[in-house]
Please model this.
Amino acid sequence: MREWRMGAVLHNYQQVLSLIFAVHEINKNPRLLPNVTLGFHIYDNLFDAKSTYETILDLLFSKQMNAINNYDMNKDVLSVIGGFSVEDAYQMATILDQYKIPQLTYGAYDTTLNSKAHFPSLYRMAPSETIQPIGIVQILLHFEWTWIGIIVSDDDDGEGFVQILTPLLTQNSICVALLLKIEKVELAYGGKPTTQMSRIDAALESEVSVFIVSGSYHSLWDLKLRLRVRKFFETVDFRKVWITTARWDFTKEISAFRGFDDTFNGTLYFSVETDPVPGFENFLKNLKLDESVMPFLCLFWQYAFSCSLSRGKFSRCKYDRRCKGKEKLERLPTYMFDMDITSKSYAVYNAVYAIAHALHAIDVSSQMLMMDRGKFKHLNLQPWQVNSLLKNIHFNNGAGQEVLIENGEVSAGYDIINWVLFQNQSFLKLQVGKISASHNFTLRDDIIRWNSKLKQIPPQAKCVESCPLGYRKMDQAGKQACCYDCAPCPEDMISNETDAINCAKCPEEQYPNADKNECIYKVKTFLTYEEPLGIVLIFIALSFAVVTGMVIYTFMKNWNTPIVKANNQNITIILLISILLCFLSCLLFIGKPGKVTCLLRQTAFGIVFSVAVSSVLAKTIIVILAFLATKPGNTMRKWLGQKVANAVVLSCSLIQVGICTAWLSVSPPFPDHDTHSLSRYVIVECNEGSITMFYCVLGYLGFLAIISFTVAFLARKLPDSFNEAKFITFSMLVFCSVWVSFIPGYLSTKGKYIVAVEVFAILASSTGLLACIFFPKCYIIVLRPDLNSRKQLTGKGN
Model:
């Protein structure tokens, strides 16, 4: 144990060497403290609270008597750099703060040390503790690690770290699978070691693959010892990722324990932001074991180089080889002594410069510095003067690097170091990221060297498998938010990221694909001239238009025949032309809707059909008037003229024209895109504008049709050899049946098929009028001309 402990603290000697280097550098700088020579005392507390108090008292008081009040205070002590651990910092601050002597700590990260109310003379050369948890959370988010374990020391520092970290984890939906607090080694071995070891074993054997560790070299001793034992007996093969805070000096683990390379290889370590110091490496290379450093370096030198000093009072190690005093630090392996300045050594270096610049400020501003053989006269300079300047000070250190202390705390960030350990106890420190004092975070995961034993690189750290694209997370009752089920997105929604919290709707012009992980643009659809349905409807419309034209030609050719002259020739031609226009109006419904076609579609159809139905009504009225006129003494003969028929057609048609004009004036139809009716298509259609006006047009047509049907039905049995009311009755029955069935078909159909339904209704109703009214007449005109005579028409042919 003594060998391990000594090996673990070899690196601490660099911190004091950085103090010596900084003091020498300042003393050689004529511009900083001219004619002043800084001195220093070095004390070791031996990791013991009692020794800490003794060394502080020895530093402050040059003479101690039996009576506690009989002592002389050392007036040369203007500041103290110390307090590597939180406990040390507290113990020192308890005494130093009484005399307002500034204390600059360089390794204590406990947030309670920020309390200026308790320790107004305490200054931290380590940056804010809150920066590390923020950086840890950023690493977890970067790798999408949401199921992690936390191991901390069971003390105020560990509790403070957990209190800062836990809310940040919760805010970012990261769950803590387990929290392990480890007692210090003294408590563990004096208390319940079996219980603590079993808790450590349970944590190490858990499924958690990412651990956040915060604690000092001594507070986590049981964790390191258990890892060592289990690795030695090879009881478990650890595949863990370790994220450690700056409190755990990782270099000590390499020098204290051999073989930790397998377990901790690839660790991500937060190190206080450090800049290179020119000249420091040369200072270490040229360091010689002379009388000035012999009391301090004797033990270190003997342990590091495995030799014994020849001088008796310094020779405390029994090695066969004698130290020559020419040993070089650069020849030591890195795990024993690092030639690059460490973060804590850099903090000590800056602390010395902070004190020097505070003294320089006093000298410049007040000229209160008086020299007496290289010492400050105690009457002219007091520690509280230095204390007041250190609260907020801004300077450049000896390397020209900017240092800022605000509210008693250095403003700096943390480097993220990736430790790569090798079998020969050498190691490589890769800086893979950084978090600044302003919380700016960067991480280069492409250069991280992971532990080769990990099953997956980078590893997964989740309670459950990620929800794939097209699914969303669904909480499980009674479990943490990180343990969830995956539910598929609804039909009209997608998720294009893993572990989506909610599914999202596609834009109106897009729709989800089959996997519900991507939005696809909807296809624009309308009834085209090229598709089979459009071709069929066009063919039917044109065919019946041609047939209607042939009927018109036939009637015009036989204009003066009795059957054509019966029931008003002009009304007959108007009816045929309106039926022809009805067939041709179907062409307005096919093709891409435009502004003009949308305006003409329904209005042209409504007006033309109104003329047709009005003509049918006029023909029916003429039939009735003609029958009544044949009765002796009846005065209806005078109404048989053209004026009555024209008045009926014109008045009924003008009403529809008025409705259509009002429609176009108030809310006319316009081209529109329907993105809701069909999930995968954008329907290019004519928006009716005012649906009320559209139904008014249809309602008025229905009203005329019902009147025509009723009048024709009542006149169907009038005695005559050619009573046209029978055919009109049947034609209007067909007409009404078509348009009654059109309404539910129109309301239940979507897309281009709505247009097809309306075109079919126009074709069917027009065909009904043409066939029922005119085909019987054409049959007589073309095939039975013998029946087309006045005698046959009046019934006097027999």
Notes: The radius of gyration is 51 Å. The chain has a mean pLDDT of 80. The chain is about 45% helix and 15% strand. The domain at 131-273+414-447 is CATH 3.40.50.2300 (Rossmann fold).
